[in-house]
Fold Taste receptor type 2.
Amino acid sequence: MATEMDKIFLTLAIVEFIIGMLGNVFIGLVNCSEGIKNQKVFSVDFILTCLAISTIGHLLVILFDSCVVGLAPHLYATDRVRRPVTMLWHMTNHLTTWLATCLSIFYFFKIAHFPHSLFLWLRWRMNRVIAILLTLSLFLLIFDCLVLEMFIDISLNIIDKSNLTLYLDESKTPYDKLSLLKILLSLNSFIPFSLCLTSLLFLFLSLVRHTRNLKLSSLGSRDSSTEAHRRAMKMVMSLLFLFIVHFFSLQVANWTFCILGNNKYTQFVMLALHAFPSCHSFILILGNSKLRQTVVRLLWHLRNYTKRPNPLPL
């Protein structure tokens, strides 16, 4: 029977699910309708649409996972439920993370400017760079699934033991293997985090350099390029902040779930873990002029509709 803490956890998980679905469904619908109307799909719209679709899938897995954790946590001790849910969770999380990273790198190449020949060469082949990163993410996903398969096998064997502490004292080998596999899974998450951080740092350097050049030429610091730099930095910085919360929550959740099992601490760590797929869509909407203008138009029409007088009854 669900306790009061389980009910609070489920309520917050459902709220996160609704918030994330609203933002990502909006992004997907707007970009698909624009692509059909213009008969042309731009790179940023393609990445945003793929990111929205992968996040929607991730949110659905999160909702199911939260319901199992909150209502029937004993099912996680069985291979029939834990393995497919864990695999789906990591696969959708992997795709969402890498697509968000590719979007940050896209904005970096699109807005930043450096006279270095390597940067200009990469910028000229930006679409190829994004395609190579996505291909690399697929290979890393295969590696991630193989590591995760071994991780689930070992953790299920540990869960089968009646006394985890006694079992670890008797045999340190499974725990050592589990620690090694956790490190490998963490490194797989660290790669997109490092790329996102690097793009933010280079955006900042590009903004500083651009602002210094404007001051030397006495043109001020409020031109369109400077504003584009600042908007991109705000969006990438917001994504990076959510990424940091997501990355560290993932590590804490992995260790606490393995050592402590399903308890109230693990549940609320999962809520922090799910903040990234739930909130990042609204950062993308605010940072994209087309999506932002569409939201403004929708709110304007909604306000006019609510102010419309009701017809008098006959």
Remarks:
- The CA atoms of residues 77 and 159 lie 7 Å apart.
- The chain has a mean pLDDT of 77.
